């Protein structure tokens, strides 16, 4: 608790107790907590991200934890679904009628304990050392710390990223209650990117998008000294929350289980941010502001407090009592340039003593009486919060220290804290990334000069292969034309094969060829962030200003033109590898190159290993809107070899117009990593593999689920003719034809893209109809109700002219039918879903809506139930999928 006397703490070397037994009790506390939560087994071989994403029996149940060992998995499952209740550690226990809850001393920061000198000190001390039992609720902060300690770097990163999306305060310094070797979580923060608008409201150049690790902002720390009857966390939540809608960013005593004993999380430093929306009526501050919160007393966690004083523009110290010991601690900060503010409750403490020591501290800390605030039970809370905000605003207006998380990590290193990013594998991967990215001055020029097999050579080859494929379905194709296409294709492939991989591509191949799985994963993450940093400035614009593809006057569209500026990404390096493999394979097939002279035959194996580690791989090339068939089938063959007996697949695809939230839906449902948002998304279709737990695979009927995100392939144009529409329809047919289950993501009740309707008509002829789920996503207002049952039929009934045009293109003699009848969709059988709005509140400070999270979980449960009941058509193994890819 924040109210425990530092005299009786077992902290960072400031403990004055002389009994040698006390450190032993403290050292065992972490191990006892890990044992209680069932995490002991993950101390050597850490829990991985892939472990946490496996589909199991629990994936289909909205179960409540019954014993402490359920809590880590319940937290991970809810956090993956962005559920606002993820931090709730309530357990459903079978309690006997005469059972009574066990009462114990609270250690939470918000609980107030006053020591009576007449009490038996030994009894009080041992009550603090009491460890949780299976029927004692676990404090949520203890659960978080135990889980982070038991997780590898990539699961830690995922946990922190999901917590950021939920607007939870994030762990910045992870305490080690056994060895006092605390860890600064820099790597875990790397993946968080935030957007904001500076004032004036949404003016030109006011939009910003940046990593929270790299962007600099003033920092304000809130700490407790000795005991405090005021809650730091509640105060911080009030300061961060606009209007009267308080969001519980920091866990506090008035929340469920907020007063349960904290056993291992004292010394935790949390971080959160305020980001402006550009709206003066909502913005508390005109610029981003960082807030830091130290759990526990500063006397017991002096190292963390020292760090906060070095990185903060101002430190708010909450206390009821200033004793001689606390005075000495603060006196040692006399050289600090940080501003200090005291928040006191004098009626709870020793008022005269406080005043005496404050008068001594005023010249030492260079403060005046305006830096001392008094808050008692009669103080108006709203007025007090406004006063805190005014102090922060005054500091912002004056010259003040601005720091990034990277700057904080540098200060932590100087103080002797461990930084998670400093491990050898991570640094080697970073160095390799920098050798690649330092050569990228201009993304377009780099693609042209270093990724030479893409662009015109691949676009021309793809066009020839499309023409050749169309000839195969012709009734009597002219042999001369076929020979000419073969000749042109071979010329293009020989031209590609004459090149060697550039130095950047060779460096990339070396990075993903590392025998160390961790180094390989570090490298891929570094590449994603490194390439994002060199992205063209035109990509850092508000989403509404991005380029869109317009049909030309004749109705046709230039297929070489981009829907939006495509950022340089990892997929471009993998595309280049794919083209080297395609060109070489084509020449071997034609007898122009002996198989023994192949140089790139191992490339699909490298790519399949990336798919197994959770990286989304490109299925349909976003630059040419075509599938590199040899590369994809080669990759799937290698996947089949690596999976051996566990190669039964269900293919789940999601189609829809960009901006309808389909990638976010898939990521929330399964914990995937598909790119979201037009400003950062590649245009191709991507696939990612999910493993089904061995104990559940027999029941579910498959060993893995291959999830395909259509990305930006479906433009949603209403035109019924032209190359663009035909191409979109063909790609939609391909993706739906490969699938056992297809999710159609819609933004409006009649927003069914023409290309998808066209694909329905084509697939009906083949007899292959996957299980369809139509998802209507409310992209704006969380309060808008879902379609009423009678409206659901209308949702699947596209405009007559659009349906008629699609039927005419397929030359159907019976005209057209409503899509509802075509897809065998019965509105009463839950084929149609209404998903509430993603955000609760106004971004960028909005949290994910609980209703959104719960609706996504119900959709996931239904999809898995359909798969288990065989409603998703016949499941396939990988070899059958390869044949289907070739046929389609």
Q: Brief overview, please?
A:
By secondary structure, the chain is an alpha/beta fold.
Overall description:
By secondary structure, this protein is α/β, with parallel strands linked by helices. It has four domains: 97 residues, no CATH class; 242 residues, P-loop containing nucleotide triphosphate hydrolases (Rossmann fold), CATH 3.40.50.300; 153 residues, no CATH class; 205 residues, Rossmann fold. 40% of the residues lie in helices and 12% in strands. Helix 9 packs parallel to helix 10 and helix 19 packs across helix 21. The N and C termini lie far apart (63 Å).
CATH topology category name of the largest domain: Rossmann fold
End-to-end gap: 63 Å
Q: Residue share in helices?
A: 25-40%
Q: What is the rounded Rg?
A: 30 Å
Number of helices: 30
Strand content: 5-15%
| Strand element count | 21
At the fourth level of CATH, the homologous superfamily of the largest domain is P-loop containing nucleotide triphosphate hydrolases
* CATH level 1 class label of the largest domain: Alpha Beta
Corresponding CATH architecture of the largest domain: 3-Layer(aba) Sandwich
What is the oligomeric state here?
single chain
Instruction: Give the uncertain stretches in residue-range form.
Output: 1-27, 95-129, 536-540, 542-564, 781-791, 823-830
GO molecular function: GTP binding
GO cellular component, one term: cytoplasm
InterPro entries: G_VLIG_dom (IPR030383), GTP-bd (IPR006073), P-loop_NTPase (IPR027417), URGCP (IPR057365)
Biased composition (Basic and acidic residues): 1-10
């Amino acid at each position: 608790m924040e109210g425990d006397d530092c005299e009786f703490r077992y902290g960072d070397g400031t403990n004055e107790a002389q009994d040698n037994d006390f450190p032993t009790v403290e050292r065992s506390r972490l191990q006892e907590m890990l044992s209680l939560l069932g995490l002991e087994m993950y101390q050597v071989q850490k829990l991985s991200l892939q472990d946490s994403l496996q589909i199991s029996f629990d994936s289909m149940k909205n179960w409540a934890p019954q014993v402490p060992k359920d809590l880590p998995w319940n937290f991970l499952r809810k956090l993956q679904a962005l559920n606002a209740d993820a931090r709730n550690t309530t357990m459903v226990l079978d309690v006997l009628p005469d059972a009574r809850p066990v009462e114990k001393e609270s250690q939470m920061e918000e609980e107030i304990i006053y020591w009576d000198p007449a009490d038996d000190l030994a009894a009080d001390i041992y009550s603090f050392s009491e460890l949780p039992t299976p029927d004692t609720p676990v404090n949520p902060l203890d659960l978080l710390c135990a889980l982070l300690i038991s997780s590898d770097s990539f699961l830690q990163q995922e946990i922190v990223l999901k917590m950021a999306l939920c607007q939870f305060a994030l762990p910045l310094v992870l305490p080690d209650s056994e060895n006092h070797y605390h860890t600064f979580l820099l790597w875990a923060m790397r993946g968080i990117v935030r957007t904001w608008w500076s004032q004036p409201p949404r003016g030109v150049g006011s939009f910003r998008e940046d990593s929270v690790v790299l962007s600099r902002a003033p920092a304000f720390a809130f700490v407790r000294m000795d005991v405090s009857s005021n809650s730091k966390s509640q105060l911080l939540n009030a300061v961060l929350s606009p209007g009267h809608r308080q969001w519980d960013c920091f866990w506090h005593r008035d929340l469920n289980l907020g007063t349960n004993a904290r056993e291992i999380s004292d010394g935790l430093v949390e971080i959160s941010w305020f980001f402006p929306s550009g709206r003066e009526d909502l913005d508390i501050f005109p610029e981003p502001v960082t807030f830091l919160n130290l759990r526990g007393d500063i006397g017991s966690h002096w190292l963390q407090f020292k760090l906060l004083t070095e990185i903060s523009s101002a430190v708010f110290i909450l206390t009821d009592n200033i004793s001689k010991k606390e005075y000495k601690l603060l006196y040692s900060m006399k050289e600090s340039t940080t501003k200090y503010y005291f928040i006191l409750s004098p009626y709870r403490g020793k008022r005269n003593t406080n005043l005496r020591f404050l008068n001594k501290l005023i010249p030492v800390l260079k403060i005046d009486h305006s830096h001392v605030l008094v808050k008692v039970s009669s103080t108006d809370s709203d007025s007090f919060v406004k006063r805190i905000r005014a102090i922060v605003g005054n500091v912002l207006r004056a010259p003040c220290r601005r720091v990034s998380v990277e700057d904080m990590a540098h200060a932590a290193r100087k103080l002797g804290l461990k930084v998670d990013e400093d491990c050898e594998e991570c640094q080697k991967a970073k160095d390799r990334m920098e050798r690649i990215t330092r050569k990228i001055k201009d993304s377009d020029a780099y693609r042209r000069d270093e990724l030479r097999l893409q662009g015109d050579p691949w676009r021309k080859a793809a066009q020839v292969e499309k023409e050749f494929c169309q000839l195969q379905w012709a009734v009597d194709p002219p042999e001369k034309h076929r020979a000419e296409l073969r000749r042109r294709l071979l010329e293009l492939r020989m031209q590609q094969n004459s090149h060697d991989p550039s130095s950047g591509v060779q460096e990339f191949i070396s990075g993903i060829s590392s025998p160390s799985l961790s180094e390989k994963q570090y490298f891929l993450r570094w590449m994603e962030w490194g390439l994002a940093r060199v992205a063209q400035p035109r990509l850092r614009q508000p989403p509404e200003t991005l380029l869109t593809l317009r049909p030309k006057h004749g109705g046709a569209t230039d297929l070489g033109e981009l829907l939006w500026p495509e950022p340089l990404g990892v997929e471009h390096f993998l595309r280049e590898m794919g083209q080297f493999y395609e060109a070489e394979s084509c020449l071997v097939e034609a007898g122009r190159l002996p198989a023994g002279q192949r140089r790139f035959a191992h490339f699909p194996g490298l790519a399949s290993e990336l798919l197994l580690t959770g990286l989304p791989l490109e299925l349909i090339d976003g630059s040419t809107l075509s599938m590199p068939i040899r590369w994809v089938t080669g990759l799937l063959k290698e996947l089949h070899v690596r999976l051996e007996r566990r190669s039964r697949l269900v293919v789940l695809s999601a189609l829809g117009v960009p901006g309808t939230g389909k990638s976010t839906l898939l990521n929330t449902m399964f914990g995937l990593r598909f790119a979201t948002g037009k400003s950062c998304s590649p245009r191709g279709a991507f696939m990612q593999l999910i493993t089904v737990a061995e104990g559940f695979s027999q029941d579910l009927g498959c060993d893995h689920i291959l999830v395909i995100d259509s990305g930006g392939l479906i433009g949603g144009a209403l035109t019924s003719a032209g190359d663009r529409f035909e191409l979109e329809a063909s790609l939609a047919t391909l993706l739906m034809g490969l699938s056992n289950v297809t999710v159609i993501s819609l933004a409006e009740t009649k927003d069914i893209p023409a290309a998808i309707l066209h694909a329905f008509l084509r697939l009906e002829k083949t007899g292959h109809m996957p299980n369809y789920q139509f998802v209507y996503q409310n992209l704006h207002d969380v309060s808008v109700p879902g379609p009423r049952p009678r409206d659901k039929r209308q949702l699947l009934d596209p405009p007559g002219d659009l349906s008629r045009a699609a039927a005419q293109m397929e030359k159907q003699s019976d005209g057209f039918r409503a899509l509802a009848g075509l897809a065998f969709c019965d509105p009463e059988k839950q084929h149609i879903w209404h998903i509430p709005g993603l955000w609760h509140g106004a971004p960028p400070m909005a949290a994910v809506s609980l209703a959104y999270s719960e609706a996504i979980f119900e959709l996931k449960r239904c999809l898995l139930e359909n798969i288990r009941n065989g409603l998703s058509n016949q499941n396939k193994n990988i070899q059958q999928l390869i044949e289907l890819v070739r046929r389609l």
